[in-house]
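[audit] Reproducing an earlier prediction to check determinism. Same input, same settings, fresh worker. If the tokens differ from the archived copy the diff job will pick it up downstream; this log only records the rerun itself.
[audit] input (115 residues):
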Amino acid sequence: MARIVGAVLVLLVLVAMPLKYLADQPVLVEVIGPPHGLLYLVYLAAVIDLARHVRLTGWQLAAMVTAGLIPFLTFVVERRIDRIAAEQGLGVPLEEPLGLGGNTPVVQPDENGRS
């Protein structure tokens, strides 16, 4: 969810807003703005649900809420929260992300060293 909100926010801020204010073309802001607002509300619901399951500090929760408002911050915060969740044994431990397609789970070897 954070990646989607982050991508839409980057598109809004780096493409739609400049077109509105520099080229007097507000149509993209009118098209992208409302979906971003709706996606941000869904993202906030996901943040609240995640905060119930993962022990987050107030700063971490504030960073997650703020991440949907500042371009590119969602990608940084999501990565850090994924690590915190993995350290707490929640979710699947992750390797490096493979782009927008998702993350590849790490296969843990069994006691005999086999995957």
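[audit] rerun output stored. Observation attached for the diff report: Confidence is low (pLDDT under 50) at residues 93-102.
[audit] end
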